[in-house]
Amino acid sequence: MTNTVRSVRIIRVPTSDWFLLFVFLSVGCASLLPPERRVYPKNPVTLPEGMDIHQWIETKKNQYLERFWSDQVGESEYKFNYIRKNLTSFGSYVSCSAMIRNSSLKQLELYNLVSMVNYADYTKFMRKGGDLGPMNEKERTEILLPCIEEFLEPPQPKE
């Protein structure tokens, strides 16, 4: 039987450094904004005349073709993902996702809004990771809300 000696190295960290490490880990790990800040500020959204939520979703599918996906998750509730058409200044696409439901017969409510900066071309089937957001109010204002606003634009007549 062979005796094995293992070496154990003890590292001493001053108490003040533990505090800094704790603060760094606490602050460095950001999270999404709280749910009340991830709702569309202009809720409710009025449906076009004569449309219900299902017809409106179909209209959006036709309007955005390859840049819009949705799943029905309830009788009058959907989850959608929309990818902006234009690249960002650093060569990525911004997408936004949300839950949408009827708040009344003629109005919709968008909630649980999330944005993502994708590192891939949406026109290809290659999907790479991205940065999920918004992590702060600036990202909400500069990334998420413009994406939602673009998605909500009515279809434009073809020129």
Query: If helices are DSSP runs of H or I spanning 4 or more residues, what is the number of helices?
Result: 3
Radius of gyration over all CA atoms, rounded: 23 Å
Total strand segments: 6
Biggest β-sheet description: 6 strands, antiparallel
Q: Averaged pLDDT, please?
A: 78
Summed up, the domain count is 1
Shape: globular
Give a verbal description of the structure.
The structure is a single chain. By secondary structure, the chain is of the alpha+beta class. The protein contains three helices and six strands. The protein has helices spanning 15-28, 53-64, 137-152; strands at residues 45-46, 68-74, 77-83, 93-104, 107-118, 130-133. Strands 1, 2, 3, 4, 5 and 6 form a six-stranded antiparallel sheet that branches. Strand 2 and strand 3 (77-83) form a beta hairpin. The chain is globular. Mean pLDDT is 78; it is low at 4-11 and 15-30.
